[in-house]
Amino acid sequence: MNRPLVISLLALVLVASCSGSPGTHMVVKGTGPDELLKLRHGPSLGYKVMLGLPDGTELVRRDCATEMGQLWCRVSLAKAPGITGYVSADYLSGP
């Protein structure tokens, strides 16, 4: 497969995995019953954890960024919009 095609396909996958416009309501999903999704100060594992979010937590997605091959979304808590941080897009689902 040629390089431009691979890059185009990867870009399409990244855009599709964080679909929806800013302000889209999302739900934490897939962390497991005894695990929490880490809300971080920035878009990578190198940032400090602010909170742990259980499955079912309602969030509002602001925007997304790719950092070292991982898609991160800046979110705020739906019930506390002043609390904003970054989570892995792998654990976000539509409402």
Count of extended strands: 7
User: Radius of gyration, rounded?
Assistant: 14 Å
Low-confidence segments: 4-17
**Range of strand content:** over 45%
Describe the overall structure.
This protein has 95 residues and is an alpha+beta fold. The chain has a single domain, classed as SH3 type barrels (Roll), CATH 2.30.30. The protein contains one helix and seven strands, in the order αβββββββ. A five-stranded antiparallel β-sheet has the order 6-5-4-1-7, with no helix packed on it. It is globular, with a radius of gyration of 14 Å. Residues 4-17 have low confidence and may be disordered. It comes from Antarctobacter heliothermus.
Sequence-ordered SSE layout with sheet pairings:
Elements: H1 3-17, E1 24-28, E2 37-40, E3 49-53, E4 58-67, E5 70-77, E6 80-88, E7 92-93
Antiparallel strand pairs: 1-4, 1-7, 2-3, 4-5, 5-6
